[in-house]
């Protein structure tokens, strides 16, 4: 879990505010869980998202926010739309057996199904806020899905078709480099040098040599050239592109798009659920 606050540092710079924040933390917990008789038992630590919000004067809510991976997910309340990636999507299509789904390991109730969206909420928020869950196509650059660029380290993430093709070609040649390594000692040594900083450099080197040897022997036994020619490389590239675009990706004007699931808060006036103490 993330560490929000550094108690040692704060105790040197602003200990009074930390003590006041901890006191308010206990009051909030007491209010939210209706256990005023146990108020002094609540002792927050540096990983408390609630204490962090109190210390930094952020809005609090009348009940705790929904969870995400066992941690308070204030973004579900504060953001109008949230892209979600970790949930059991298959249950949406079998509602005869399921009326809840897991999103980020937290249980959400399926309140309603329409042709355009599913209406969801959590046990503690069901009478206050609902969320629409639906599909939406967005630019990959705006999505939580990220494609790492290995062919060009100056690119943060791959977002265009041109970049994607270059990356796939880079990976194809990297997978085939073992053939060259088995044919040319100089290339083998160059690859060994590239891998030297890896903690498993010897293992990776031997694996590349082994896979390359197997590929080389297989190709020669089928009377193919030792190393694939350009036509064969392009065929491999097209196969990978086709597979890629069958997994929720598409292209528009050279820009990669992604079909994602969005959780959209229905209620606009989120301030009405602020905790005023």
Which features characterize this protein?
277 residues, alpha+beta, seven-stranded antiparallel sheet, two-stranded antiparallel ribbon, 38% helix, elongated
Describe the structure.
By secondary structure, the chain is of the alpha+beta class. Among the domains are: 1-58, no CATH class; 161-253, no CATH class. 38% of the residues lie in helices and 17% in strands. It has eight helices and nine strands. The strands form two sheets. Strands 3, 4, 5, 6, 7, 8 and 9 form a seven-stranded antiparallel β-sheet that branches. Strands 1-2 form a two-stranded antiparallel ribbon. It is elongated and about 80 Å long. The model has no long low-confidence stretch (mean pLDDT 90).
Topology of helices and strands:
Elements (H helix, E strand, L loop, with lengths): L6 H7 L1 H19 L15 H7 L11 E2 L2 E2 L2 H4 L2 E4 L15 E4 L2 E8 L4 E4 L9 E9 L21 H23 L1 H10 L6 H21 L8 H15 L4 E4 L2 E11 L12
Antiparallel strand pairs: 1-2, 3-9, 4-5, 5-6, 6-7, 7-9, 8-9
Helix pairs in contact: 2-3, 5-6, 5-7, 5-8
